[in-house]
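S2.1 Query sequence (Probable ABC transporter permease protein YqgH)
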Amino acid sequence: MLVVVPLGLFSAIYISEYASEKVRYIVNTTLQVLSAIPTVVYGYFAVVFLSFFIKQVANFFGLSIHSESALVAGLSIGIMILPFIISLLEDAIRSVPKSLRYGFMALGATPAETIWHIIIPYAMPTILSAILLSISRVIGETMIVLMAVGINANLTFNPLNSVTTITVQIATLLTGDQDFNSVQTLAAYALSLVLFIITWLLNAFALFVMKRN
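Output structure tokens follow.
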């Protein structure tokens, strides 16, 4: 999200405020196509291409990185969620009434000043809700992290290390024939409950922010 939110916001501003109709149509069509790509394709892209590229960059700077790392998974999920968040942020920016834009520009403001002083503050609740919805969408991602992040339960803040996620653990614990009363199945259901509560709280807060608008 640290990469996607600034990139998505600037992309949405360009598409809604600066791009021509032809460019906007091409970009929106491309975003729709990218949104329809299965997540397993992004996971394959992360394992085959992105992991190799990140390892080469890390070796160039003399850093040690695992073949499966949190950085690779985070970047691949960011690429996956980018079309989704751009579409949400573009809708938020385009929802600003034109009367506010034209009124501020009539006072002598430039288009850039109008964006940062009128459009962004007015659309901020919707922008925040879009970011929260994107976070809740990212938290439930399974296939990409299963392929790119590994299964090592390593508690660390170093993104170059191999770690694990809740969704990976759920998929790992439920792999194979397990008895319903087994420890593995009960642990998977407990993790699913935690994931559900986190996602529900994020969605509820996003709806609260939208209603405050």
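Residues 12 and 76 are 20 Å apart (CA to CA). The mean pLDDT is 83.
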